[in-house]
Amino acid sequence: MAETKKIRIQYYRSKNATPVKHKLVVKGLGFTRLNQIVERVDNESIRGMVKTVPHLVRILED
Prior knowledge:
Number of helices: 2
CATH class: Alpha Beta
Low-confidence stretches: none
Mean pLDDT: 94
Strand order of the largest sheet: 2-1-3
Distance between the termini: 23 Å
Helix content: 25-40%
Strand content: 25-35%
Oligomer: single chain
């Protein structure tokens, strides 16, 4: 069985004063608090979500 590739994402800037769509993207990525790091499957949909809010999240390199 092939191991699925993962991506680590950090939520480092507040979503206050951002459009509602950006707030929903942050919630959809699974963030609940600032400076939280989550690990998600590295696919096009997750990359697209990250690309929508690059000013709020960052991709962490392993």
